């Protein structure tokens, strides 16, 4: 019996790792960009890799190195980083119904990024309860190590890569938005999701055109959530 359980966990871990591989198309280019930017901001290669290992928060890392480089107070850097990562307060409760009783889950939440959340929110309900922990471990490890590896490449060889292929510098910033579009595409099969996502995109675009770029994302997110839950309640 124990051998069967171990085999099941191993297969679920491999399944999670395999299903997270498409995320690398967005992770690695953006991580390379972060490594390069961190180096240009005065951080060493090892410091850049350490930030990606310990912080592992995408946009927060870019904000972190920019604010440190500009001489912002440490307390303000911490507050801004926490505000950007406040979205995890929403992620956790949405995944909680599908989590098993394992004590490992709180530790694994270090690997809960936007993309892993989107993937897990779709896949965990489809998996047997016994396979969910292994699946999540496999998915989050592949994503985490690809982010660390991409940062190392950017910090060590990013400058040479962009000098040799200048187009890379223009393409890499679009990798993450493209990845989000791929993750959102399956949701457009539902009229309710299509309406909510369409509203979110329109509100974000309007605020950006009005010059209020800092407010565009949070206001658009709230607008999309109101439309989704409001129309769901009416239905």
Secondary structure layout:
Blueprint: H1 2-20, H2 24-40, H3 45-54, H4 59-69, H5 74-84, H6 88-95, H7 105-108, H8 114-123, H9 129-164, H10 167-171, H11 175-184, H12 191-209, H13 213-234
Helix pairs in contact: 1-9, 2-3, 2-9, 2-11, 3-9, 4-5, 12-13
What does this structure look like?
Mean pLDDT is 82; it is low at 1-6. The longest helix is centred in the middle third of the chain and has 36 residues, at 129-164. Helix content is 77%, strand content 0%. It folds into 2 domains: 2-173, no CATH class; 190-235, no CATH class. With 235 residues, it is mainly α.
Number of domains: 2
Count the E strands.
Answer: 0
Helix content: over 70%
Mean pLDDT: 82
Number of continuous helical runs: 13
Overall shape:
globular
Low-confidence spans: 1-6
Gap between N and C termini, in Å?
A: 47 Å
C-alpha-based Rg, rounded: 19 Å
Q: What structural class results from the helix and strand content?
A: mainly alpha
The biggest beta sheet reads:
none
Order of helices and strands: HHHHHHHHHHHHH
Membrane topology: Multi-pass membrane protein
Protein name: Branched-chain amino acid ABC transporter permease
InterPro entries: Brnchd-chn_aa_trnsp_permease
Subcellular location: Cell membrane
Short structural description:
This protein is mainly alpha-helical and 235 residues long. The chain is built from 13 helices and no strands.
Summary keywords:
single chain, 235 residues, mainly alpha, 2 domains, 77% helix, 0% strand, globular, disordered N terminus
């Amino acid at each position: 019996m124990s051998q069967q359980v171990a085999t099941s966990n191993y297969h679920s871990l491999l399944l999670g790792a395999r299903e997270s591989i498409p995320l690398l198309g967005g992770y690695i280019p953006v991580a390379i960009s972060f490594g390069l930017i961190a180096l240009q901001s005065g951080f060493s290669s090892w410091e850049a890799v350490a930030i990606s290992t310990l912080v592992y928060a995408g946009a927060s890392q870019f904000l972190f190195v920019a604010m440190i480089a500009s001489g912002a107070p440490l307390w303000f850097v911490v507050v801004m980083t926490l505000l950007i990562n406040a979205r995890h307060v929403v992620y956790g409760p949405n995944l909680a119904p599908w989590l098993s009783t394992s004590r490992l889950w709180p530790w694994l939440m270090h690997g809960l990024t936007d993309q892993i959340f989107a993937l897990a929110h779709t896949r965990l309900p489809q998996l047997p309860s016994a396979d969910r922990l292994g699946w999540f471990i496999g998915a989050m490890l592949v994503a985490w190590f690809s982010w660390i590896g991409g940062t190392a490449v950017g910090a060590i060889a990013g400058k040479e890569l962009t000098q040799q292929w200048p187009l890379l510098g223009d393409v890499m910033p679009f990798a993450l938005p493209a990845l989000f579009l791929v993750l959102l595409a399956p949701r457009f099969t539902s009229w309710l999701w299509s309406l909510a996502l369409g509203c979110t995109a329109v509100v974000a675009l309007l605020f950006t055109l009005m010059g209020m770029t800092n407010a565009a994302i949070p206001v658009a997110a709230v607008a999309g959530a109101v439309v989704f839950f409001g129309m769901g309640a009416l239905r």
